[in-house]
Design brief:
Helices cover about 50% and strands about 20% of the residues. The strands form 5 sheets. It has a 6-stranded mixed beta sheet with strand order 5-6-7-3-8-9, with helices on both faces. The protein contains 20 helices and 20 strands. The protein is an alpha/beta fold. The chain is globular. Helix 5 runs antiparallel to helix 6, helix 9 packs antiparallel against helix 10 and helix 19 runs antiparallel to helix 20.
Length: about 625
């Protein structure tokens, strides 16, 4: 079933044409990835389809009854609303009822004896029963929890930027719609959260249109890929891998066509320059064909998309971290960590958000001081630090002027000199864009410019903090190729699994409470290792559980209690009875609180603890009873 038809739409900003006369359709089973270099108009296209911007020409057709939910890169928030109020801002009856229910429950917690509030709560509860909307509330809280949001009644203004984005994502995921549009949903998320979102969108029914630079994410979620390239749109059936194959085929075909046209063009140019003795109809037709050939030229870029590596000499001593520790307040981020950085290191740093990954880079650069230990930097080390926050740019400079502040040219390893302009071209800034004022560049284009400036300083150590945020896939390919040829150490904080696989030979995993574990290999090697360890641990646990009774039976028969065992045996029946009664009460409470997700989670946790304790006591009872039987038989 067709959900949206995009017909011959165009969009420009001043002289800059984003796209022109592009058309495609979105069907109900489409999961589409939209890719393209930053600044080509990807986000603008999403805004147009979702109704947040208008086209210059063309039309968007949406059949009656079809609904679209849109998550922008920078969602709007009501700073005074709570997390749940923000998520339940939808106008469907179910959303309104749940929103009113959450508000009333909060008011009753402050005024438990208010009969008016109690009557209102009863009425709303009946409405939710009628709408069968309790599952919606539970689903929202589950999604929020999976996305790392557990304080449901916090005000939005108290949350970090990343947390606000995840609340907005929760709202988009929970809102019923025919087409879900997501603009960079994986930005600022840790790997575990991305894994969960990937699986959720794989299973979700309905159409999906999204922009993301996460190539594994694209490969596993989408079944259709559309690319914006030089104002044109190209559609491909299949995921990211299929797109790469088909794009190569398309470019090869276009290159062959272009070369044939160039040969024709040269012949026609020669004829035009020699001049015609008489402007006959036939000769005028040749002139017209010449003009058509000029207009029909396909823009084929045969230049290598890479960055020629320029670097400073690097001595044997690079970076030594010796027993370093760092805490903020009572939170340990790094505890007694040591490592000697080697010249060929390609280190990927992973871990949950806020666990201390960026702190390690800031300790290396001296932006932060260690609480204890030592950071020793070699005298020849020249660090380029690409941080999450771009440096303050003078937006009144042209892009090339900003780059030339670092260097007019760089010298490659083989002695070749490359100008700033040539470097910009290789970094996907065509000549016309180089002379654009920074104020007119998109956010992604500014990040790419900031990265290029860092590399223009000819560093010999790279520190990259979330380099994949806000950079398009083509730029990431350029950076990855640069790292391939880079003659020095590279340390990257990243949640992008593809980037980590592509560039790393070691992984530092931040495991919490200041612990950093080192693994050899890339992210997939680390992931397989962790999976194997978890699997082995589970197997060992099961083996222990199975072998415990046999082991106990195989022990030499005890003929008397120790003093502690005697006391334990006398009390154990009573203790088991108490635990069984507590378990019954918890099960009753769980039945009463099926609609209160927070309370339910708390009760389920308690139930698990009581069940484990009860199981242990019952096993001890069996063991102690066996000894008591032996004592009786011996008598």
């Amino acid at each position: 079933m067709n959900i949206v038809s995009i017909e011959n739409i165009s969009k420009s900003y001043g002289e800059k044409i984003l796209f022109e006369n592009i058309s495609f359709t979105i069907n109900d089973n489409d999961k589409i990835g939209l890719i393209g270099i930053n600044g080509t108009g990807k986000s603008t296209l999403l805004k147009i389809i979702s109704g947040h911007e208008t086209t210059d020409t063309g039309i968007i057709k949406i059949p009656n009854g079809m609904s679209i939910e849109y998550l922008s890169q920078n969602p709007d928030f009501d700073p005074d609303s709570t997390v749940l109020e923000q998520v339940f801002r939808g106008e469907s009856p179910a959303m309104q009822s749940i929103r009113e229910y959450e508000k009333t429950v909060e008011e009753i917690s402050n005024n438990p004896n208010d009969t008016v509030l109690q009557q209102r709560l009863l009425k709303i509860t009946n409405q939710i029963d009628t709408l069968d909307a309790w599952e919606l509330e539970n689903q929202v809280k589950t999604i929020l929890t999976k996305l790392g949001i557990t304080s449901f009644n916090k005000n939005m203004e108290t949350l970090s930027g990343g947390q606000k984005k995840r609340v907005a994502l929760s709202r988009a995921l929970i809102t019923p719609c025919d087409l879900l549009i997501l603009d960079e949903p994986t930005n600022h998320m840790d790997n575990n959260t991305i894994d969960w979102l990937e699986k959720y969108l794989e299973k979700r029914k309905g159409a999906l249109l999204m922009i993301t630079h996460d190539r594994y994410f694209l490969d596993r979620v989408v079944n259709k890929t559309i690319e914006l390239d030089a104002g044109k749109l190209y559609a491909y059936t299949g995921n990211y891998s299929a797109f790469i194959e088909k794009k190569i085929e398309r470019q090869n075909l276009e290159t062959a066509i272009e070369r044939k046209q160039q040969n024709l063009y040269k012949k026609e140019l020669k004829w035009i320059r020699t001049g015609a003795r008489a402007r006959t109809t036939k000769q005028k037709a040749r002139i017209q064909r010449f003009e058509e050939l000029k207009d029909a030229k396909i823009n084929i870029d045969d230049s290598k998309i890479d960055i020629s590596v320029a670097h400073s000499r690097l001595g044997k001593k690079i970076i030594i971290l010796k027993n370093i520790s760092k805490s903020f307040s009572k939170t340990k981020l790094i505890q007694d960590f040591s490592y000697i950085v080697l010249k060929d290191d390609r280190i990927g740093i992973i871990g949950d958000n806020g666990i201390g990954k960026s702190t390690l880079l800031n300790l290396i650069t001296g932006k932060l001081k260690v609480d204890s230990g030592m950071v020793d930097i070699g005298t020849t080390v020249k660090i380029a630090y690409f941080s999450q926050e771009s440096e303050e740019m003078n937006i009144h400079l042209r892009a090339i002027e900003y780059i030339k502040e670092s260097a007019e040219y760089i010298t490659t390893a083989d002695g070749t000199k490359i100008s700033a302009s040539q470097m910009m071209e290789r970094f996907l800034f065509p000549k016309e864009l180089q002379w654009t004022y920074i104020s007119r560049l998109s956010g992604g284009e500014r990040r790419r410019l900031y990265l290029l400036k860092a590399l223009m300083d000819a560093p010999n150590v790279l520190l990259l903090d979330e380099p994949t945020n806000d950079l398009d896939i083509d730029t990431l390919k350029v950076l990855e190729n640069y790292i391939d040829e880079f003659n020095g150490a590279v340390i990257s904080v990243s949640h992008d699994r593809y980037f980590l696989d592509r560039t790393c030979n070691k992984i530092f995993s931040f495991d919490g409470d200041g612990k950093i574990t080192q693994y050899t290999g890339n992210y997939t090697d680390y992931f397989i290792h962790k999976k194997d360890v978890m699997s082995d641990t589970l197997k060992e646990k099961k083996i222990r559980e199975k072998s415990t009774p046999d082991t106990q039976r195989g022990k030499k028969k005890k003929l008397k209690f120790t003093y502690k065992e005697k006391l334990e045996y006398e009390k154990i029946d009573t203790e088991i009875e108490i635990l069984e009664n507590e378990l019954t009460k918890l099960e009753d409470e769980i039945q009463k609180n099926t609609t209160d997700f927070t309370k339910l989670q708390e009760l389920m946790t308690k139930k698990d603890i009581v069940e484990e304790e009860l199981l242990y006591k019952m096993e001890r009872q069996e063991y102690l009873s066996g000894i008591q039987a032996q004592i009786k038989n011996a008598k």
